[in-house]
What we know:
The complex is a heterodimer of chains A (336) and B (326). By secondary structure, chain A is an alpha/beta fold. Chain A is built from ten helices and twelve strands. In chain A, the strands form two sheets. An eight-stranded mixed β-sheet of chain A has the order 6-7-8-3-9-10-12-11, sandwiched between helices. Chain B has 326 residues and is an all-alpha fold. Chain B has helices spanning 9-25, 33-42, 45-67, 76-79, 108-147, 149-168, 171-182, 186-213, 216-223, 228-264, 277-284, 293-320. The longest helix of chain B is centred in the middle third of the chain and has 40 residues, at 108-147. Chain B: It comes from Micromonospora pattaloongensis.
Amino acid sequence: MALLDVEDLSVTFxxxxxxxxxxxxxxxxxxxxxxxxxLVGESGCGxxxxxxxxxxxxxxxxxxxxxxxxxxxxxDLLQLDARSMRDVRGRDVAMIFQDPLSSLNPVVPLGIQxxxxxxxxxxxxxxxxxxxxxxxxxxxxxxxxxxxxxEFPHQLSGGMRQRALIAMAVACRPxxxxxxxxxxxxDVTIQAQILELLKELVRESGTALVMITHDLGVVAGxxxxxxxxxxxxxxxxARRRPLFxxxxxxxxxxxxxxxxxxxxxxxxxxxxxxxxxxDVLPWPDGCAFAPRCHRRVDACVGEPPELVLTHTGHxxxxxxxxxxxxxxxxxxxxxx
Amino acid sequence: MSGVATPxxxxxxxxxRLAELSAAHDDERGVSLWQEAFRRLRRNPAAIxxxxxxxxxxxxxxxxxxxxxxxxxxxxxxxxxLVKSGQGIIPxxxxxxxxxxxxxxxxxxxxLVVGARQTLLVGVVxxxxxxxxxxxxxxxxxxxxxxxxxxxRWIDTTLMRIVDMxxxxxxxxxxxxxxxLLGASLVTVxxxxxxxxxxxxxxxxxxxxxxQAGSDYVLAATALGVRKSKIALTHIVPNSxxxxxxxxxxxxxxxxxxAAALSFLGLGNPDSAVPEWxxxxxxxxxxxxxxxxxAIYPAVAIIITALGFTLLGEAMREALDPxxxx
Lengths: 336, 326
Ligand SMILES: Nc1ncnc2c1ncn2[C@@H]1O[C@H](COP(=O)(O)OP(=O)(O)O)[C@@H](O)[C@H]1O
Ligand SMILES: [Mg+2]
């Protein structure tokens, strides 16, 4: 059984006087213990809402409706009461957010924020907690951790802040870590380091990682399995190699075409996907990607495309899939 | 490019890491948020002016009573036959008496200087009263709203209804009613003036707590399983204090004016041995035609002091505004 099994997750936001938003519309994916799984899609496709729903962090109020299941180690996180969910968060499942600056409290020294989680889940206090906090910062590559613990977030660089947040997230050795675009707010040079750090931590500790990103380049280097999201639904799932070598959904092919390649010839142009995420068809009426799709056929409209499962374990939702390898220059080659 | 192995990668990483470190160290080392705000305050002429006024005011309030040339109860003008207020004879400035005499023949300058202490005392204490009560109510309401649930919402709504009722009353009317209830005294003035600012502090703290509750770092702490009560205390409250402190500075200005108004209405300290700017203003009323300066001196003192607090408060608001902070 998978460590995390998300089944038919849906989240709708209803506001009085506004159209109901189906931010997540039947997302299913699973994560095995120790596995790195990518959740990829353009901004607005529901990646953050998916992760917040799993973490139980969406506001519990009228108008926010969550459906489906998110089984973690056999228990449905969506059914847990608030108290039990608080025990799970930070201890079994942790999360890293996009903006490291705003994710840290600006007026509280780093040390207090790091020891908070140690105190909460591991009952550590005083010198023991301070020692462990310093060890954690050291583990994520923050030099001079004792001094850093006394500093305020704005005294750290962006990369250091994200390292600190990662330290807090892995403080209790959670079995699952969700990283929601952890490098998007960082400089390009720092991005690679943070990804490397995450990769290392995950390898060492056996933590499963859900890597959320809009950037296929990010998942290329680290994910075992990749789920491509479109308009709140997973439209293609595959292991890393087959996904890059032989993508089936035209949207995935489009995403691959949108990745800037260093080895692309000078004259080669990027091929962006035409239109924008706003040009969607509601899933019940057909394929949401149809309005932007160059391979659209009549069968695309009318009813949602069925999930097709190939013999290699590759699955996609498309009635007119791309077959055969895409242009070899485009297939991502990456280190194992 | 990420994830692509290149020979120089490890080296580049090392350099990047160094760059990252030195970038953070350049001018930010050891600078806390408040220090940064303070640095910006120092560059603001309005803040400097306000601070200078307040410094002078505090110095006068603290040391003035030891330095004044005449006792505030000494009716020296009458004794020396210079003042006959019944006939409207109240001499003005002279070499011995810089601001002349008041209607009872006391040295006006000495009374003005000693009055600063009373004014500062009333202003500070009444602001603290308002701050303490207001922050307590606002803090409870804000925490209750954040914790939510049926009880949380009920507590929040009830407290805020009470606060709104207080806010709806004209402030001076409120103060006068309280003063009338408690009888004229210095403590009465402090409580009455303090009560006026309770709703402002309560609403402000609650509002900024609710705003902070929706912030990213609260979400991040929640994602780590930190308990709501802990989040409220270690995260939300400290971040909500800046606007409250700014408001306290601004409130000092209005508190001084309101305290003077209450004294003017005769609700302040009945003991006229202790000079107070509001009382001095009231005492000058019958002599507005003959010696308006007696009203002008305390009035100007009140206005300048209030101006000092307002200038500094506004400048602090600007310096601490996260939207203006880069
Ligand atoms: N609290 C909310 N209320 C209403 N709509 C929301 C809310 N949060 C997210 N959405 C909508 O849900 C969709 C998915 O958002 P999100 O998950 O943040 O996308 P992303 O994939 O970029 O992380 C967006 O269209 C967004 O406008
Ligand atoms: Mg997002």
